[in-house]
């Protein structure tokens, strides 16, 4: 449970930065960008600490989000 409490601030910071980038990139209001992110499959993966998706850079997450919006599929970057 303590681990989840530690993860929440990290998730909030990532979501905030990602939503701002989505708003700029897709010419959306902040609210529309946040709503789109919360409804995405990517957000479902981000929310689950054990997936480690939150460990990716925000620009990478943005590319993943845009691709999901265009294709309906999330493509995870290949690991080194």
Describe the structure.
The protein is 69% helix and 0% strand. It has one domain (2-71). With 80 residues, it is mainly alpha-helical. α1 (2-26) packs across α2 and α1 (2-26) crosses α4 (58-71). The chain has helices spanning 2-26, 30-38, 41-47, 58-71. 15% of the residues are buried.
State the helical fraction.
Answer: 55-70%
Mean pLDDT: 91
The biggest beta sheet, please? none
Rg over CA atoms, rounded to whole Å, is 12 Å
Strand content: under 5%
Could you say which structural class the secondary elements and strand pairing correspond to?
mainly alpha
The total count of strands amounts to 0
Helix tally? 4
Unreliable stretches covering 5 or more consecutive residues: none
Report the order of strands and helices: HHHH
Count the domains: 1
General form: globular
Summarize the structure.
With 80 residues, the chain is mainly α. It is built from four helices and no strands.
Core attributes:
0% strand; single chain; mainly alpha; 80 residues; 69% helix
Itemize the secondary structure elements and their pairings.
Layout: H1 2-26, H2 30-38, H3 41-47, H4 58-71
């Amino acid at each position: 449970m303590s681990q989840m409490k530690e993860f929440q601030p990290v998730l909030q910071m990532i979501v905030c930065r990602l939503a701002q980038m989505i708003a700029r990139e897709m010419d959306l209001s902040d609210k529309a960008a946040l709503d789109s992110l919360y409804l995405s499959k990517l957000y479902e993966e981000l929310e689950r600490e054990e997936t480690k998706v939150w460990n990716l850079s925000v620009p990478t997450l943005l590319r993943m989000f845009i691709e999901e919006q265009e294709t309906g599929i999330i493509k995870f970057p290949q690991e080194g």
